[in-house]
Design a protein that fits this description.
alpha/beta, three-stranded antiparallel sheet, 12 helices, 10 strands, 47% helix, 16% strand
Amino acid sequence: MNRPRASRATEAAAAGRGHGLSARIIGGIIITFLKALRFGDEARALRLARAGCWLLVRAVRPARERNLELMFGAGTISAARRGEVERACLDYASRLHVNLGRLGGETLPGVLARVGVQGRAALEAAQAEQRGVLVLSAHSGTWWHVPPLLVALGHRTAAIVYPGLPGPILSYANSIAHRFGISQAYVGAGAYHTLREAFKQRQVCYVACDVNLRPEHGSWFPFGARGALALDAGPAILALRHRVPVVWANTYHDAAGRSCVEFLPAFHAGRGTEWPDTEAVLRYLARRIEAQTLLRPEQWWPLGFRLIEAAAVLPRST
């Protein structure tokens, strides 16, 4: 497998810059903004969110347009379509921030009322195996809803968090986990041990797996028309070592703007299955991420970051 080199965003995160002064200031502004969206009626919160997210959407336009070219092919996106995507990105970012702000004051019944759920039977069938369940998703829709939703559905839940996030954002994530009784594990700080114990207790473990923050532990896979995406091997290794059922969750906002989570039927990795090794599992995950992202590109949060590379980084055999 071809090992990915670090992108600029990855290098910054890996270097711990998420805890630098500027990151803390920006993180603090974001969390203050999220908390302001927690109050008042939904329409007012969305108007405020759109005003605040407009600059963000404009700021990441160069990276977004580059990524769209790699995903769909050069010259395939008209100027009109670019405008549509930009407006959709603003609508998505606004609803995402409102959802994140309100999550900080939400209750479990409130989560069930706010989030549309599909595929609950698939999740229940996986949990019925009594071995724990690994739930994976992309950073799409309001992916932050997945762990609280799992708790609201009656499952003890653990989640992986990257500790290099800006301090205020990490603290906010921790407060939400505490609010809903979610166990958190940190990449590079005992995450494997935490999840191993969670599986022993037949818990559901959640990981958003489409951003590779450890280049030495990942590989590149085809992504879209002429792009490549690097995936961390960690989730695949978890699935193979623990032989737990793996459930993919599509996370998105529907046409009405409602946050939705769709649990797909579980698959099993390991010898004697269709996914016998790390590369096979990662290829499956890459296809899931690709399918969801090509369907709703404006709802993929990493679209605004330089995480996709040209397909030239792929090994010749790919």
